């Protein structure tokens, strides 16, 4: 029989808290590992959600229709688009909460939340507000048990990330588009935007102070030119990733001592592949996972163990998660971490037996269930 402390760790440190009808796992570690096989990347709660391409295309069409109207009509169109985006955002938050309340694989759901924070986006811009929920559904959930490189590519090419970090505005100074612009107005030269390149290197892969320079960021930004979205009319599908050759800076790039001679989008893809496999990336990811699940100052031995699992498996995330669960330090009963407000809310609602965060359609408020059994015993631990 598993010790109460191991059960509490499995349910709260690695999970989302117990529900009233949950049974205490006889073997907590095996219970967590078994979730890798039963995880559903597309739970039914998201069945009514639209994909980012559909949502983005609708937004682009609305803005295009208002383009040639008067100022008042343009303002009204923008206001309507913002309101629609905010409504959809609230609906996505509600679906995300319901997925966490209903899931039978809470460890994997916690990992989805971890990776969404790792590849964080801001929903301040209307285009991003509209598809912020789609970003997690499309870039994170399908890859949470896969290869880090695949998740990296999905996240960096997602329209939400491209709009958030202004990559859609990045234009190679010697690209075809820039040359045409120079002929029209030599004083207004388009240029690159380094936001995405910097974010990838500093936050998503290598980590800060890991050996890259400002010159490397600039070269990477040049390689990334052309990563964009389609238009309402023209190349590609509006609201979906599109590589636009006319924006791409021609020529080879040198990044952290490595020369990339590929053309077009293959150049940035080659850089991303190398960044995903870098030793600094393995250490960065290992440190963040250990910090998230164990302690703000994670044990050095655990970080080394996870980084080695990352390198040995070539970024297979399940191998890294298994190394985490195999670490004795992860099972120490000492309460070394606070739950975030999101985690507290979800675990409290799970303990009360709630499956929804809003009132039912009839207007009646769902009545909470008094926590009993395992949910009452472990609701406040770790």
Question: What is the spatial order of strands in the main beta sheet?
Answer: 1-2
> What's the shape?
flat
Roughly what percent helix?
A: 40-55%
Number of helices: 17
Mean pLDDT: 90
- The CA-CA distance between the termini, in Å, is 20 Å
Strand content: under 5%
How would you describe the oligomerization state of the chains in this entry? Answer: single chain
Low-confidence stretches: 359-382
For the sheet with most strands, the description reads: 2 strands, antiparallel
Whole-number total of structural domains: 1
* Topology as a string of helices (H) and strands (E): HHHHHHHHHHHEEEEHHHHHH
Structural class category? mainly alpha
Number of strands: 4
Mind telling me the C-alpha Rg? Answer: 23 Å
Write the layout of secondary structure elements.
Elements: H1 4-13, H2 28-38, H3 52-66, H4 71-102, H5 106-118, H6 126-140, H7 148-156, H8 159-164, H9 176-184, H10 195-204, H11 214-224, E1 227-229, E2 241-243, E3 253-255, E4 258-260, H12 265-277, H13 279-293, H14 300-312, H15 317-325, H16 341-351, H17 373-378
Antiparallel strand pairs: 1-2, 3-4
Helix pairs in contact: 1-2, 3-4, 3-6, 4-6, 4-16, 6-7, 7-12, 10-11, 13-14, 14-15
């Amino acid at each position: 029989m598993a010790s109460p402390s191991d059960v509490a760790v499995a349910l709260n440190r690695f999970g989302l808290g117990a529900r009233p009808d949950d049974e205490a796992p006889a073997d907590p570690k095996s219970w967590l590992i078994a979730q890798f096989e039963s995880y559903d990347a597309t739970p039914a709660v998201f069945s009514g959600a639209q994909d980012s391409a559909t949502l983005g295309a609708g937004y682009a069409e609305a803005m295009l229709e208002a383009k040639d109207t008067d100022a008042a009509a343009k303002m009204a169109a923008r206001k309507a688009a913002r309101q629609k985006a905010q409504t959809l955002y609230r609906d996505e938050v509600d679906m995300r909460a319901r997925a966490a309340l209903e899931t039978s694989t809470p460890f994997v759901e916690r990992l989805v939340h971890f990776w969404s924070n790792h590849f964080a986006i801001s929903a301040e811009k209307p285009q991003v507000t509209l598809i912020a929920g789609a970003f997690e559904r499309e870039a994170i959930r399908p890859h949470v048990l896969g290869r880090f490189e695949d998740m990296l590519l999905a996240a960096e090419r997602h329209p939400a990330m491209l709009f958030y970090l202004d990559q859609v505005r990045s234009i190679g100074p010697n690209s075809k588009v820039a040359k045409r612009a120079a002929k029209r107005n030599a004083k207004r030269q388009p240029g690159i935007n380094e936001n995405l390149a910097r974010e990838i290197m500093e936050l998503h892969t290598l980590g800060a102070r890991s050996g890259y320079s400002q010159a490397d960021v600039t070269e990477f930004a040049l390689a990334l030119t052309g990563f964009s979205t389609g238009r309402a009319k023209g190349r590609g599908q509006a609201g979906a990733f599109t590589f636009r050759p006319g924006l791409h800076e021609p020529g080879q790039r040198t990044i952290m001592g490595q020369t990339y001679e590929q053309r077009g989008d293959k150049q940035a893809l080659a850089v991303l592949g190398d960044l995903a496999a870098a030793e600094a990336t393995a250490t960065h990811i290992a440190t963040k996972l250990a910090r998230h699940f164990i302690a703000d100052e994670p044990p050095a031995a655990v970080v080394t163990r996870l980084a080695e699992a990352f390198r040995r498996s070539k970024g297979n995330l399940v191998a890294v998660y298994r190394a985490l669960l195999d670490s004795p330090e992860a099972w120490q009963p000492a309460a070394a971490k606070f739950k975030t407000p999101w985690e507290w809310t979800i675990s409290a609602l799970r303990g009360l037996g709630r499956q929804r965060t809003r009132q039912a359609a009839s207007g009646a408020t769902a009545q909470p269930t008094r926590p009993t059994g395992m949910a009452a015993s472990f609701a406040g631990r770790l």
